[in-house]
Structure formats: structure tokens, C-alpha cells
Amino acid sequence: MNLEKYTQKSQEALANAQRLAQEFNHQSIEPAHLLLALLSQEEGVVPALVTKVAGSVLALREGVVAPA
To answer: Distance between CA 67 and CA 10 in Å, rounded?
Structure first.
């Protein structure tokens, strides 16, 4: 995978997803790690969309970190 072909925000999200997987002691990067990284991006597209649809990213972020 050539990360140079990705946007700066995409590269940051992938790096943060990798960091999250390591923090949770997971062997691989899962979609939940990437979602959490995307939700955590300030001025990112994903938080803006979620906020527009649901009003806040907090509940979604909490649901990803601690699923029921």
C-alpha cells in the first residue's frame, strides 16, 4: 500500500488507527479502529457528517470504544 497516494487526512487516520490498535493490544487494525480515528479528526469530514446527521459524535465514539 503506497500511503503517498492518500490525502494527508487519510494518512493521519491510518496512523491513528494503527496507534489505537496497539493501545488496545490488538494484533491487527480493524474497521472500528479506523472509524474511531476518523471520528477523532478535528475539522475532518467524518465528524462533520456525523454531527450533521446525529448532532454529535460522542455517542458513536463511545459505542465504538465500549460496544454493548
So the answer is: 25
